[in-house]
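User: Fold this; tokens only.

Assistant: Input:
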Amino acid sequence: MNHGDLYTHNAVINQSELLLFSDFGAASKYENLTEAQQQGIETNRATGRETFIVDMLSLCHERDKGGEAYQALKERVLE
């Protein structure tokens, strides 16, 4: 499944602190895409993942931004 619009505004954290994705309006079955479309997704996947993680990091509480896990993830994404 290709979500097609994976940004923080389409992600929700529930009361059990599980990350849930919403708004599947742009979703498609990956195998139904043309080879060119699949290649485009592969080309953009890393950039999209990094953008998503940076967006999620921006939502962290200020007290957590000094933490080791936060800093390690931020450094890994921004390499």
